[in-house]
Specification:
There is one protein chain. The protein has 195 residues and is an alpha/beta fold. It has one domain: Flavodoxin domain (Rossmann fold, 3-Layer(aba) Sandwich). The protein has six helices and six strands. Strands 1, 2, 3, 4, 5 and 6 form a six-stranded parallel sheet that branches. Helix 4 links the parallel strand 3 and strand 4. The longest helix is centred in the C-terminal third of the chain and has 25 residues. The protein starts with a strand and ends in a 9-residue tail after the last helix.
Length: 195
């Protein structure tokens, strides 16, 4: 079964991203198409890019990079759970993306963004050309959560709405379709992609 990696981008101690991410992971786990791998960038704790060579060569010298490379390479699709900071996405997510190169190729990526009135849409618009240059396929289907603080209960658990549930389902369905369509491109030359 294909693996969907859900990446929680925010690393702030008081972040909302973990609550949003757990909600989305629950939705993704219920979807029949994927095994789900939850990645918390606060736990991964990558230092700012410290590899001596360009990632396209894959000649990593640091163990943290080798571990990150193996985990991303094993994923077939991604969902980035991202905040919006000052009209853009955050530095830990950019750093995590930039560490690698070929590991991202020919894999679809969906976005679960959150913020105030803009719901993180500006962060997603900045992410799309970044992932596209890595030969990922950014989806049009996304989950945009406006006024995210209003969705937290007294225990800081995320409270969804029917509209957000429908958006999550649509994005997961799109991830399933695009993952299957892109799978042949990920097969090594001369080999057939797994069914």
């Amino acid at each position: 079964m294909p693996t969907l990696m859900v990446v929680i981008a925010s690393t702030r101690p008081t972040r909302v991203g973990m609550a949003v991410g757990r909600w989305f992971v629950d939705r993704a786990t219920e979807h029949p198409a994927f095994d789900v791998d939850l990645v918390d960038l606060a736990e991964i704790d990558l230092p700012f890019m410290d590899e001596p060579e360009h990632p396209r060569y894959g000649r990593y010298v640091h163990d943290h990079t080798k571990r990150w490379s193996a985990r991303v390479a094993a994923a077939d699709a991604f969902a980035f759970v991202t905040p919006e900071y000052n009209h853009g996405y955050n530095a830990p997510l950019k750093n995590a993306i930039d560490y690698l190169h070929h590991e991202w190729e020919y894999k679809p990526v969906g976005f679960v963004s959150y913020g105030g009135v803009a719901a993180g849409t500006r962060a997603v618009q900045q992410l799309k050309p970044v992932v596209a240059v890595l030969r990922m396929t950014p989806l049009a289907d996304a989950v945009y959560i406006p006024f995210v603080q209003q969705h937290l209960n007294e225990d800081r658990r995320f409270q969804s709405t029917g509209e957000l549930e429908a958006a999550a389902s649509a994005m997961l369905d799109a991830l399933e379709r695009y993952e299957a369509a892109l799978r042949p491109l990920r097969a090594p030359s001369g080999q057939t992609a797994r069914p």
